[in-house]
Write a structure and sequence with these properties.
This protein is an alpha/beta fold. The chain has 16 helices and 13 strands. The protein folds into two domains: about 200 residues, Rossmann fold (3-Layer(aba) Sandwich), CATH 3.40.50; about 180 residues, Glycogen Phosphorylase B (Rossmann fold). Strand 9, helix 9 and strand 10 form a beta-alpha-beta unit. The longest helix is centred in the first third of the chain and has 20 residues.
Length: about 400
């Protein structure tokens, strides 16, 4: 198979999209070697270090964002991307183009459709802007242009996938699509694995805590850190030797840190900021309970397919997630769901998980790990996509 992958995501960033695309690129290249496929990848030059091979990867020059020229910058990025595509990839043979769609890459499937080239749209997020409020002037015009372009691009893709069922159903309804399916976010189970918890604690400087609950990822204040700080005093009273770990950073973290100082809980709550991606697995293995919440508004609009949940499970860490999300994992007994604003429920759930016996914890870790490998791995997600690609190209 001849595949060309195109994305505007910086794969060196430790946020959700960066991690998703880094691990997708990793499995794409590994499977290409295994299957004998020809792969070409067009991505922006990473802003930081990347710990995966970058064979047959070509970088395009990404324009810095200018708030006064945002749309012009996006168009320039799309043009640069196309220039790199035509410079490094032959379009004369039968090729499947895989595009991670964004405002910057909209121009790519547009040109591919005009050239009558087949394209697959991967991990479609809210490119449309379903959550956009009232728009006026130039913003309104750009919003309408994007809607027209998506109406032209989406129906002609050979297939589209999105990481939550809510996004799939919303796109289906808005654009009357029949070519969109749900493929969950996935975890690299070779990178994320079960490690000796005490050794990981020593590596991360957390050996003073007997039990740890925490969040590891992007936007921590919106995804569980605020709730953990809200119950910190109760947790310390119930479990004097436990700790709270917050890995990641966002604009609201200073407020949470101030609250921790005011409550004199600095020795009990550890903020690491953003850590190198390759070190994240050890921080996750320090946890006895992993939090992965989201605001009710975001859950209702987009669903919840948190990369964190998949990473926790691959490391055998019990998960707390929002109500009405991740039903398969909850039903299988690997996660417990809570109302994200119910601090009593969150405290009770952490207490229950902390109180489980060592034998129960060992059984859980094994079960969670096996589930992640068989259901949530990048290899499994790639196989789902590959079957679609192969059916199309052989059809």
């Amino acid at each position: 198979m001849n595949i060309c992958y195109i994305s505007s995501i910086d794969i060196s960033l430790p946020n959700g999209p960066g991690v998703n695309e880094r691990e997708f690129l990793n499995i794409l290249q590994k499977e290409a070697i295994h299957r004998g496929d020809r792969i070409t990848c067009i991505i922006p030059r990473p802003s930081g270090r990347v710990d995966i091979p970058l064979d047959n990867v070509f970088f395009y020059h990404k324009q810095a964002k200018n708030e006064n020229l945002t749309h012009a910058s996006l168009m320039a990025n799309g043009v640069n991307m196309l220039g790199s595509l035509f410079a490094h990839h032959s379009t004369g043979t039968k090729v499947l183009y895989i595009v991670r769609l964004s405002s910057e890459t909209l121009v790519v499937p547009l040109i591919l459709r005009l050239l009558q080239k087949p394209y697959y749209l991967k991990t479609l997020e809210d490119v449309y802007g379903f959550a956009a409020g009232p728009t006026l002037g130039l913003t309104r015009i750009n919003y309408l242009i994007k809607r027209i372009l998506l109406g032209f691009i989406l129906p002609k893709a050979i297939f589209i996938d999105a990481s939550t069922r809510q996004l799939v159903e919303t796109y289906k309804k808005r654009f009357k699509l029949e070519n969109i399916i749900h493929i969950d976010n996935a975890v690299n189970t070779e990178r994320y694995d079960i490690r000796d918890r005490e050794k990981s604690k020593i590596k991360c400087g957390l050996q003073s805590f007997r039990q740890i609950v925490g969040y590891c990822g992007g936007f921590p204040s919106q995804r569980g850190a605020g709730q953990l700080i809200g119950i910190a005093r109760r947790l310390r009273q119930a479990f004097p030797d436990c700790g709270i770990l917050i890995v990641g950073n966002d604009a609201e973290m200073d407020t949470l840190k101030l609250k921790v100082r005011r409550d004199n809980l600095q020795a009990f709550v550890k903020f690491t900021g953003i850590v190198p991606y390759e070190n994240l697995v050890d921080y996750i293995n320090c946890l006895h309970v992993g939090i992965a919440l989201d605001t009710p508004e975001r859950v209702n609009r987009y669903g919840n397919s948190s990369q964190k949940i998949r990473q926790y499970l691959a490391c055998g860490i019990p998960v707390i997630c929002p109500h009405n999300t991740n039903h398969e994992i909850v039903d299988y007994g690997l996660a417990r769901s809570v109302s994200v604003n119910d601090l009593d429920s969150i405290f009770d759930t952490i207490q229950y998980l902390f109180d489980r016996s060592p034998q129960e914890n060992r059984q859980y870790r094994k079960k969670a790990r096996q589930y992640a490998i068989s259901k949530l791995s990048t290899k499994v997600a790639h196989e789902k996509r590959y079957r679609l690609w192969k059916t199309f190209l052989n059809g």
